[in-house]
Known about the structure:
The protein is an alpha+beta fold. The protein has one helix at 2-24, and strands at residues 29-38, 41-46, 49-54, 65-75, 78-88.
Amino acid sequence: MQNKTKTMIVMILVISFLAGPVMAAQKLVTLTGTIEKSDSGLVIKTDKGVFPANGPDLNSFVGKKVVATGKFTQTDTGKIFTVISLRKLTG
């Protein structure tokens, strides 16, 4: 009985160890475009589309062309791009 319990605990730990990083990993994405205001909030308008976005200090970049790195997450209203880092492009 104790061997079965130990085996089960070891199996759970191994599965958790292997599955944890896979479940937690989200691909970082870089978008180049302009921060704009829309009826639903802020967006990043790129040559590939318009993406709802959130993140710190986005309001100060409205109308500016930027390179934004972040992650797409699914919400009740659809996908949103959460900005992790932002750099204003010159020119």
